[in-house]
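Thread: Newbie trying to understand structure tokens

Hi all, I'm a second-year student working on a class project, and my supervisor (Dr. K.) asked me to get a predicted structure for one chain before our next meeting. I've only ever worked with sequences, so writing a 3D structure as a token string is new to me. If someone could post the tokens and maybe explain what I'm looking at, I'd be very grateful. Here's the chain:
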Amino acid sequence: MRTGEDVSDQDMGGSQVHCYESGVGDNEVENDADCIATVRRFLSYLPSSNTEKPPHLETGDPADRLVEGLDKIVPANPRAAYDVRKVIKAIFDHESWFEVKPTWAKNIVVGFARAAGHAVGVVANQPMQKGGILDSDAADKAARFIRMCDAFNVPLVYLMDVPGFLVGSQVEKDGIIRHGAKMLYATSEATVPKITVIMRKAYGAGYYVMCGKGYQPDVLVAWPFAEISVMGPEGAVNIIFNKQIEASDNPEETKARMIETIRKQISPYVAAGWAMIDDVIDPAETRRVIVRGLEQARDKKVDRPWRKHGNIPV
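---
Reply by user tm_fold:
Sure, no problem. This is what the structure looks like when written as tokens:
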């Protein structure tokens, strides 16, 4: 090579490089037949052009099906990990989940699914990887997927359990603000129906890019043990009340009391009382709420006069 590197074709730009490291590739498959089948399935969620709606497919999965056991999949303890894919597969139509870029930026999960036959794009935080925190790659991955859904009129469903964005001197030097802004912009400009379910944590800027209140979700609901805050109660206590805790006779007891006080203040019931969310729902009702929201927002039209590309077929 002209660069002087001694490298094979695969190491230079094979599927392992682009599906696992660069994020350029979406999905890796075994052979040509699998590739064609995967492409067909991918296209089944999209319309023929951006002037049409996504195709509706009867799946036989009832729209009003209760999703029992979600509270067992998702621990109430905000520090406990779980696989968000189990939540996705339980909520949406059986066998309808199609993941995009599953081997890159694994702290966020994106892909297509169906809800009572309606095609949707799913954006979900993944606590099994880095605690679900957002970094530069995760923001890029989500932003590209959100824009693709918006371009082809595919509604978006956000399943939120986010501790915020990764912090540190190195990520700042790497431009995490620039990358995070891509996701923020993609969410804010999307004109398709947007439904947000706060499952557990909704902390800091992560709350906004996962389609929080300020970004016009058509439905915004939370589970009973969700927490909506600038940061977690433990972090808030350590930063705000550190001196009071150290000066107290029993620092551990004082800290625990303050954490509990803050936890009550960031309860979803408080947010509902201030009309910052639409409702606090039983996790089992999640599917019903999503389907109802999709049907209510089916004819949604948002005027974005600055989007000059709006009527150009892709």
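A couple of things are worth pointing out once you decode it. The radius of gyration is 21 Å. The CA atoms of residues 68 and 115 lie 16 Å apart. Feel free to ask follow-ups in this thread.
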